[in-house]
Amino acid sequence: MLAIVVGMLVGMTVNMAIIELNSRYLFPLPDGVDPTNIEQLRSYIPDMPVGSALMVMVAHLSQALFGGAVAARLAASKPIMMAMWVGLFSMIGGISAFYMIGGPTWMLIELPLYLVVAFGAGYFAAR
Fold it and tell me: pTM, whole model, 2 decimals?
């Protein structure tokens, strides 16, 4: 359990760091858009550059990748399964965020990739 919790914390930290980098430096949010205000984010999404959406996808998948790798390395047994739990919880968060905030429909392709990335992280970390 601890491996999963630590993996999730590490993954969420990586996710938020990439989101911050994206929204502050790579594709800055327009003036007046508060990233903590869901309504303002919803209104910005239709005008969001594709590059920014791709960086959001990278951030989300990085959560499953790094979090899964950490969980697998910390696991006393079944490292791939621990990584998959991180991938599953990350995917649930991604589904929730998509339905709360929205986004381009093509971004739904990331949902099954959470599990693929987490499996790969667990597999390589277990070796």
Answer: 0.93
